[in-house]
Amino acid sequence: MGSGGEQRLPVEDLKEQLRRARAERGLSMDSLSRRAGLGRTTVSQALNGPTLPSEATVVRVARALGITADPLLVLRGHALATAPAVAPAVAPERSESESAPDAAFEQRYRQYVAERHARLSVVGLDLSQPEYACWPLDTAYLSLEFCAPSADPLAVALGGPGPAAPVAAVNRAEQALADLRRTLVRGLAGSGKTTLLQWLAVSAARGVLPAPLMELNRCVPFVLPLRSLVRRRQLPGPEELLSSVGCPLASAQPAGWADRVLQGGRALLLVDGLDEVPQAQRARTRDWLSELLAAYPQVRVLATTRPSAVPEGWLTDHGFDELTVRPMSTRDVGVFVGRWHAAAAEVGARTGQERSQLAGLGEALTDTVRSQRPLAQLTTTPLLCALVCALHRDRRGHLPQGRMELYAAALSMLLVRRDRERGIERPEGVVLSEQQSIQLLQRLAYWLVVNRQTEMDRETALTQIANLLSAMPEVAAQGDAVAVLDHLVGRSGLLRTPDPDTVDFVHRTFQDYLGAKAAIEAMDLPLLVRNAHDDQWEDVVRMAVGHARPQERAKLLRRLVARGVRSQRHRVRLHLLAMACLENATELDPEVRQEVTEHAAALLPPRDGEEAAVLAAAGPVILDLLPGPDGLDEDEAAAVVRTAGLIGGEAAMGVMKRFRLATEDRVAWELQSVWDRFDAAAYAEEVLRYGPNRRLTTVTTAEQFTLLRSMETTPEVIVSGPFTGSEIADALAAEQLEYLNIQNNPALREVGFLSAFTRMATLTLLGCTAIHDLAGLADSAVASLTLDVPTQALDSLAALTRLRHLHLFMPLGLRNIEALPIAADLTSLTLSSTKAGGLSLAGITRWPRLDMLQLYGKVRDLSAIEALTELRFLGLHDAASAHLYREGLPALPQVTSLDLRCLSGWGPENPLVAVPSVFPRLKQITLLCQTKGDRRVDLSPLADLPDLTEIRLYKAREVAGAELFPEGTVFGLPRPRS
User: Fold this and answer.
1) Which of 43, 280, 307, 357 is the most buried (most CB within 10 A)?
2) Does 701 map to a domain?
3) Same-domain status, 72 and 178
């Protein structure tokens, strides 16, 4: 009974009993989700959400709580009997103008999406019964970490003026995607990109997305797999979004429904697989997306791609933020292994003994991954982790070494052994040996690779098989191409049919592995070399080296190197690819190996973070080539350390120890910023404690926090993660701290504890989503404040009268700067505007002593800064930079240092033409060329500036007019190679 004698509903009783059991056992939500082998969102919804949990969820949660599930299942049955027949979990907000037919159809469509994408295929779960070889999405979804670029990379990349830049923000998916309207997610094959889209689609359709993404619950999800769409003559318009993906409700949608959803800003476009679009068609795909966004500017979009498929900034002009999927952490692997074995027991175990054996195998594998670093380096994505789980079970605890062995063993397990060992024979009237299956599958894979496709028409697949059957009489005697294809789809575990007319591989990795094998057997080395620059062929080439015989391997690598020598455009990619291929070259002529390493060494040392990332992608093999520290400039030494840090683990420790005595600030920064990629205690003992001028420490894990208390205190600390104020205060020395950066912290709710840090003059709060009041800083020593917090926190800025530097990297929805409640006498200010009409700078003279101003996004009334007579540094970034060309700005002779970011889109004229008249006394200018379209720079308009002594170009590819300036005036970052 509820309060006041009201009858409590069965679903309320069910959830109350679960909550009470959790409280009695003192389990956190994270602990309970790990024990249950379920996602945190699923457990949270089971205990607190409006939806009725599934029967499997109730059983797992009960088991994790140590209580009997039967009474709970009875309650669930009563709740199910009294629940409405059909209803979304949370009714989305609807506009008053939305018609009844639209609302009714949208409800049907949401239910379809929730059902259509609610299950996920998982490698090796139960291949004897393919219908069971998948998980419910609620169980399969693992919220991985995403890395976003820092809010202001200028300070790190160039060492220029401005506030200290944050490290790259690392968040779980829910936090990383919060507040982003358009996002491009980069991730390796099998890293969980498609699973993320499915989770977003299903959760949005049900209206159960967690708090950081709650706004998306009102959105209508459209899942758009590009692998299917690009085969159409034209990519779909609004009215074709459902029919293009085979949705059976397409013909039932009210006329103009999709247009109204898109126009109303309630559409969530989930565009999967930009990397699966052939290069020749990517421009067409970009144009299609551009047209949609132009017609419907309020639409929300999340697109996915492999890391190297599209260049950096490919969608920046359209307002896309970029996120990168980070490798699975040890904790992630442990959670995944537990869930995999729990699901395997649920769908495949017939007896208690089998379930017990699976549980034991899961625990053993978790311990093995933790103790064996080579294996930990393999289990970095959900796909590879699933493969390792399946092979570990199949081989009774024994595992292959290396990726090529892993894939070969997986094929053997998937194709033959599972059926044979379970006594399954001729379910389709066809029996194939492992070699026969591979020959047929690699024919299909090779067709896909050569034609740059990731799926084919069923008729094409049948034609390929029929052509091969004439050379395989034993197989042809068992059935025609239809029977063989049905057998491969039904029994191989490698092929699937997304719809009745389409065939593809369950994962691109298997397609590339088999395609590479076919290319080697066909002696198509010229084809491999000719396409090696194409990102879609990268994994094919690398695995071809593994499949090749020693002489073929040597010939292939030599041709790769030779093509790199001839092609300036693709030289770096080809030579690094050849280097990366050595990982799979188990036997190779020493002269060939030396030739490959020498050409790769010519690309060393790296000079910035982007080059470091490219080198790190080659894997641990690059570690032996990294030079230094002797003979390196500061930018090179920092990039070398970053390269090794990105690889991480025991293999990279030796490189980090070589640089541990470095005195350069940027090298010291890189050494401590990658602490989380190593064993925390060992890295602190063997690397960090040796830093002679170590001023900064970055802390991202609880283990690091514990170690921090025993380490020598540094005056600057960056804390990233959900740590409470008391935890931060206990770990830091209040009397020594001068700079504190707290980021990606949803747990921190108040800042009053910071007043105890009496020497702390600089404070940064980024991604602190629970802070709504800053008044607690009124009595602190903070003079410089950098913020990305909820906008309501700005109301308390009026109390911070000691501020002199304020940098707002948060989206401001203000129309006028006068609305900022700031009473302090500022000398530097950073503003980020997201208002469609722009932020008016009228009234900026309330801070007459401003000597530094940085502007991001759209702004208005830039002429107001003419009255800032002490202004020396001006930064115009993104949309703000366009005003220099589009508005007739007054002369600003007081400005001597200028930063311009993202020059594309200004117009047909040279965008620097206006600079001399607006900034006649300019001494220094930095041009940040971030997108593909603005990396050609003509400096000639700047030649008449009499005081200009320094021009810095960041990532400019082509520079004209540099000869007009004295030697040493113009320099690029990264520095060009001699």
Assistant:
1) 43
2) no
3) no
- Specify burial of residue 29 (Cβ count, 10 A radius: 0-12, 13-18, 19+): middle
Between 62-66, 178-182, 564-568, 684-688, the lowest mean confidence (pLDDT) is in 62-66
Q: How far, in Å, CA of 602 to CA of 637, rounded?
A: 16
Could you tell me the strand order of the sheet in which 321-325 lies? Answer: 169-172, 145-148, 321-325, 182-186, 300-305, 267-272, 220-225
Residue finishing a domain among 581, 601, 621: 601
Residue count of the chain, please give it.
Answer: 978
How confident is the model over 592-617, as pLDDT tens digits? Answer: 999 998 898 888 899 888 788 878 87
Q: Which amino acid is at 555?
A: K
Q: 73 burial class (0-12, 13-18, 19+ CB within 10 angstroms)?
A: middle
d(CA 468, CA 465): 5
pTM of the shown model: 0.58
Helix 10-25 vs helix 40-48: crossing angle, to nearest 10: 120
Q: Which helix (H) or strand (E) holds 787?
A: strand 784-788
Q: Per-residue pLDDT tens for 269-294? A: 999 988 778 777 888 899 999 999 99
| Domain annotation covers residue 941 | yes
Residue 784 in domain: no
Query: Are 77 and 172 contained in the same domain?
Result: no
Residue at a domain's end among 601, 631, 656: 601
Contacts of 166 by beta carbon, 8 Å cutoff, 6+ apart: 150, 151, 152, 718, 741, 743, 764, 766, 786
22-44 mean pLDDT: 69
Taking CA atoms, 519 is separated from 123, 233, 683, in Å, by: 25, 29, 44
Specify the pLDDT at position 158: 33
Q: Residue 247 in contact with residue 108, Cβ under 8 Å?
A: no
Residues 128-184 pLDDT 10s = 555 566 777 877 788 888 876 544 433 433 333 333 444 456 678 888 898 788 999
Number of domains in the chain: 4
Q: How far apart are CA 941 and CA 936, in angstroms?
A: 14
Domain match, 174 and 69 both: no
Domain extent at residue 541: 523-601
Q: Is residue 90 part of a domain?
A: no
Q: Residue type at 774?
A: L
